[in-house]
Design goal:
Strand content of chain B: 15-25%
CATH topology of the largest domain in chain A: Alpha-Beta Plaits
Helix content of chain A: 10-25%
CATH class of one domain in chain B: Alpha Beta
Oligomer: heterodimer
Shape of chain B: globular
Number of helices of chain B: 19
Structural class of chain B: alpha/beta
Number of helices of chain A: 9
Strand order of the largest sheet of chain B: 16-18-17-20-15-19
CATH architecture of one domain in chain B: 3-Layer(aba) Sandwich
Number of strands of chain B: 20
Structural class of chain A: alpha+beta
Distance between the termini of chain A: 41 Å
Largest interface: A-B, 112 and 151 residues
Number of domains of chain A: 3
Largest sheet of chain B: 6 strands, mixed
Strand order of the largest sheet of chain A: 2-1-5-3-4
Chain lengths: ~375, ~525
Amino acid sequence: MIVDATQGRALRMTLDGEEVRFSDGETIYEVATRQHTPIPTLCYDPRLEPFGGCRMCVVEVEGARTPVASCTTPATAGMVVRTKNVALEKHRKTLLELVVSENREVDVDPLRGYASQEVATLVDEYGARTGRFQGQRSGTSNETDDNPFIKRDYDLCISCYRCVRVCAEQEGDHAIAVMNRGFQTQITTEFNGRLKDSACTFCGQCVQTCPTGALGDIKAMRAEPLPGELKKTRTICPYCGVGCSVDLLTKGERLVGVQPAMDGPANKGALCIKGQFAFDFVHHEERLKTPLVRGDDGELHEASWDEALDRAADGFRRAREEHGRYSIYGVASGRAPHEAAYTMQKFIRAGFGTNYIDNCSRA
Amino acid sequence: MSNPLIDMEKPDVIFCIGTNMTECHPVAATGLKKAIAHGSRMIVADPRKIPLARLAQLYLPIRVGSDVALLLGMAHVIAREGLVDRQFMDSRTSGGDEFIEHVKPFTPEWAAEITGVPAKDIETAAIWYGSAEQGAIYYTLGITEHICGVDNVQSLCNLALMTGNIGREGTGVNPMRGQNNIQGAGDCGAVPSHFPGFQSCAEPENARKFSEAYGTEIDAEKGITKVTALNQCGDQIRALLIDGENTVVSDPEREHCEHALKSLDHLVVIDIFLTETGELADVVLPATSWGETDGVCANTERRVQRLRAAVPPAGQAKPDWWIVSQIAQRIGTPGFEYESAKDIFNELCGLSPIYAGLDWDRIDQGEYQWPVPDKDHPGTPILHVREFKNGRGLFKILGYRDPAEVIDDDFPVWLTTGRRLQSYHTRTQTGRSQGIDYLLSEELLEVHPHDVASWGLVDGGQCHLSSRRGKIMAKIKATDQSPRGTVFCSFSFNDTPVNILTGSGYDPVTETAELKVCAVRVEPA
């Protein structure tokens, strides 16, 4: 939980030689983040309760026998903390080398998920890309789950439990859990089956928080071979009225996926199956691509914009002439932007002087 | 919503009624789940044992259409137990004493008779909500899609007013809007009763303002609703412009609706796919889709946010506003010389007091919730903080009415309709998104397992489902999510056209259809 430092009692501690203020209840990690002092993490997601599992965020606290996990240790008055020194950096590098040695691959496509580049980025930062440790590996990929949304490539799993925690804490679904311990640790569902047969709602939150790409967005991953740079455009989900912020993933002129906006004012990174996965109707082959006009044969035929707009306008003009201004009615959409609804009501009010306009909210 | 979404984690007592939130507003429901994890208590009233009901500490399985009775019973208990917030009632509301007198006969035992909920559970619900430090009400179409939809909403307001659970953090009366910009359609004046910014059409001053702005004399009286307009098609109404609505599948009484549209002289449909409604049109105009369109939308908490285009339009598709403006210009209406969505949004802000402090650039980050009356205003996350819009909060005296149609020997089963997590409305979008079929490929009529057995049906088998308006075939799923004697179906699948059966009645004020209740017969096929 992020606590506003301006609230409550103003307490002081020393962070990398500088005196900083904090408020009661803040962890060392939260204070450091607020001070723009970077501390590397793997198991941390700011939306979730601190877990302290990965040990990447360890810092030195004066008087403590060993380094402590900054994400779970509360800041206390007078505390003297060092976030960076030779010993800590060596610890972090070794830890990363252990992680990397277990994983089949480190470099995964960013299309896999929002956080999928976290391990690869840290590995580069610490120069930890070595084959230093050989031996056992944990996590077996689930190849039998035939669901079309979530890839379960557990060979890349580092047991940070972010997926398990986001499912429980953020979604309240508790669909996935941890089986076994040590090298046998495996993220799985009840009875070790398919996600479809679990409490999973396919909201995709586990995918988006996974720091290694062990969980991947299958629909987005289809665009991996496409050429071009991956771009993100911030917009709002097209479905219900919650108004979740999303980033549209595009390659060239193609919409290839959706990622939740972690700073979205209405959703703070949360999404549901529709917002996460039901985006590709945009490029569906049945999209209307040209105007259609009903011909004398009673069928709809392709027409030019000019022809179709003239025909549309003629019908309204004729109705007004023959049956008066109360013969024309407009129905606006609850699915189109403000500008559509505004011009629709203005079309009726400015065009015919009536209030013969409504939207689809009554059914 | 009177309160922001972020408040959903804060109430100590949550009262959800007529909202299938985990399926229809799943992200909002995560807030309630967090509140429960932190010790909040939740009451859920719903005819169906929906997932939200399974999360609740207290579930009230009300009979479809009996909400007013439940809420009157709760008001009775709150008054009887001395849980009324006197200070709030005296300083902020009118008609409270009369209301408290009014609810005296409506004992929980009386409400139990009508709702089917045990009287002691009605008492418990009332005592929890009445004693809450922060009590919040959430509702959706299970409240509004009834002939007594307005009474249902006002009954909820009465509860909030008598307990002072409004105008504060973590409280409120909170409708969850169902479409990404249904709030915006109202904000923009696409309603027969209000000009943009909810300025009443019946106020001559407002009609003058818009007549002047638009350069045409505009009526200073309300127009008719879409429901009335559909009834008058081929008669008074001759030409219809529909933007982005699949009226034929989403509206009640499908045959009536199809007949209405077919009897028009002129039907123009703007949409992104050729829908069942577009098939009936004289002219179909291709609109740019979400992801291809720049614009603005407003969510259920009145937050005004930007929609941004990320890919070019499909084929020759054009933004809705461009299409409408072109038609307007071609019939000679002035004031449609727009060059961008920005021009239009800024015009809206200039004419709407609730948007007066906003413009295209200011909403870039989506931090404003209307009303935003001027440029220095921070927005209004919580409504009714110091006073109500019209001064004091008004209690409404109302009584219980039966639904338009009640079960009888010919149609002995209640049918209620709704939505499902994986599909959206008539599936024009989710039905064309890959993978959704894996989870939801067909519609299933939900029937209680005991009813399946006693009506001679088979789980997974077909049945005939008929009402006074028509007959359809449906595939059966045995589930205790439906109570005995009530069946459920969504209207998403065109091959299970449940809206052939619905349309038994309409709320006299809003003309919203009673889509949540109709009497049917279920027979083996």
